[in-house]
Amino acid sequence: MNSGKEFNARAWLEIDKKKIISNFREIQKHVAPLDVMAVLKADAYGIGADFIAKLLSGHGVAAFGVVELDVAARIKDLGIPIHILGAILEEEVPIVVGEGYIAPITDIRIARLISAEAIKQGKAAPCQLKIDSGMGRVGLLLKDAFNMLDELCALPGLKIVGAYSHFPSAYQDPEFSEFQVKTFKEFIDFSKTKGLAFDFIHIANSDGIHNIASAIAPPFTMVRSGINLYGEFDIPGKRAFQIQPALCLKSRLIALKAIPKGSSVGYVRSFIAPKEMLIGTVPLGYADGVPSQIPGHGNFYIGTKKCPVVGRVSMDLTTISLEDAPEAKVGDEVLCFGQEHRISEWAQLKGCSTYEILCSLGKRIHRMLV
């Protein structure tokens, strides 16, 4: 399509609205009767939280999960509950309480701060207990959570509406994940003896939805979906239902030339032409998130033609072989990833997660809904 050219963009990320909605509905169908939280961390992994929140707001999304308060501020007018995931800073407490965001209780110190601020503002602050059942980052260790519950329940101004935890290894280590579910459920049962009736109980992320069936059944009330919304997965694993790739990274040829045998391409002359070759140049590089590991291993595409990346990826430019696309011309559209060429291919080349690839896409790449 020519939408990128209309914006004078050298590179653009096409965000397919229909596919995202379709993916969301597939997730809803699979986890019903549980609700679905759309996770919009890191500005929806760099895709644009505003776009995604507005898109899903009319399709039954139960909540949005964010980390940054500026993202929360941009989507709060949609009227859908906003859960602050992770942890909050002391100076963020007045905003979180004032806006009515659902705050994470990650330790007794932050619980006391939220309590004091809620009293100051004359509000009941909705909170969730963040339980560390195996991630080892932030949150109440299970043994501590049991012991702290009386004090937490006694703090004025706190309205404890939920509890949640997180899988570090839903696919690679299902036995440990099942242990997490078991111990977390024991905590939920214990909480009931203290008079707590949680509205939100959740542990399943995208991989958990597909691989840990016990995490999408009662007593859990919700799942958290992020990467699956875009038809992608973090790692290989069980696929409980089908989702469609909804993102395409595109650019266009900015130059092409025939080079003789023995000519070098790119910095440090890392590629030497084994014969006369037609080389195309695409105006995006590592500053835009193209992995430096892609030359010699990955491809861009012009139409249905595979164009291997050759030569070192530069800051602003990437070079490709046009041997199989000799009819190519300057201005032709280039597919970098998308459709059947999944983002996970780049992640495998780089040795990272699909999340990291998405979050590394630079600001120069125009984001556009299609």
From TrEMBL:
It holds the Pfam family Ala_racemase_N. InterPro entries: Ala_racemase, Ala_racemase/Decarboxylase_C, Ala_racemase_C, Ala_racemase_N, Ala_racemase_pyridoxalP-BS, PLP-binding_barrel. Keywords: Isomerase, Pyridoxal phosphate. It is an enzyme of class 5 (isomerase). Substrate binds at residues 137, 315. CDD domains: PLPDE_III_AR (cd00430). Its cofactor is pyridoxal 5'-phosphate. Residues 246-370 form the Alanine racemase C-terminal domain. It catalyses: L-alanine = D-alanine. GO terms for molecular function: alanine racemase activity; pyridoxal phosphate binding. One of its GO terms (cellular component) is cytosol. The active site is at 41 (proton acceptor), 267 (proton acceptor). HAMAP family: Ala_racemase. Catalyzes the interconversion of L-alanine and D-alanine. May also act on other amino acids. This is Alanine racemase. It comes from SAR324 cluster bacterium.
